[in-house]
């Protein structure tokens, strides 16, 4: 749970909605690359979430920034299929639970090795698996947004030559950042171990969750 911005509440998938996109929809999405779009622009430093700092102390290798890596990736058809499949697999196999129920604390970020987690944990798992598949960590940024319910949420941003794409545990469809309907607060820096502000940039239209 992200508790430091606008009174963040739990960022679990609502039980009444569930995952909006079906596996068939996600698989059909993998057939074609997304339309190219402009990237989001960072605009200064931001304070890292406390639970992220704690996670980095426990697992520093997950937070290191190698500036020799590419900061964007070429979105080939093969890579696109890998990203879509990784997003779908994590969304299907992780049981959404609060940090309080899971760990007995208000906010904890971790890789969900026990099959349970909230939005940050989905992000960390997807990032780890994509890194193991060869995607540069530097091109994958944990990102904090305000969602359609005006609540805190975490997503994984992948920076590509076709724009910044968002992997989300609320939907299986992978969207350009500008089509999510979210307000973008901050993300990991690509230059150092730290975070950068996204200025509260809002996207005008909420993409359909169905």
From TrEMBL:
The keyword Signal applies. It comes from the Bacteria. Residues 1-26 form the signal peptide. InterPro entries: Transglutaminase-like_Cys_pept (IPR010319). Keywords: Signal. This is Transglutaminase-like cysteine peptidase. It comes from Bosea rubneri.
């Amino acid at each position: 749970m992200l508790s430091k911005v606008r009174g963040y509440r739990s960022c679990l998938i609502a039980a009444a909605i569930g995952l909006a996109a079906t596996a068939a929809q996600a698989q059909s999405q993998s057939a074609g690359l997304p339309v190219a779009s402009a990237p989001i622009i960072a605009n200064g430093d931001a304070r890292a979430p406390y639970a992220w700092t704690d996670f980095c102390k426990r697992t520093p290798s997950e937070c290191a920034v190698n500036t020799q890596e590419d900061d964007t990736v070429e979105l080939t058809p093969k890579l696109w299929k890998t990203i879509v499949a990784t997003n779908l697999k994590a969304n299907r196999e992780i049981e959404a639970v609060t940090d309080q129920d899971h760990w007995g604390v208000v906010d904890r970020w971790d890789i969900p090795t026990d099959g349970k987690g909230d939005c940050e944990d989905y992000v960390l798992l997807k990032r780890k698996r994509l890194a193991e598949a060869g995607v540069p960590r530097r091109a994958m940024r944990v990102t904090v947004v305000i969602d359609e319910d005006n609540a805190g949420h975490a997503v994984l941003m992948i920076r590509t030559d076709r724009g910044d794409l968002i992997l989300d545990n609320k939907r299986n469809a992978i969207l350009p950042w500008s089509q999510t309907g979210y307000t973008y607060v901050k993300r990991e820096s690509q230059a150092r171990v730290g975070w950068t502000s996204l200025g509260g940039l809002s996207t005008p239209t909420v993409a359909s969750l169905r």
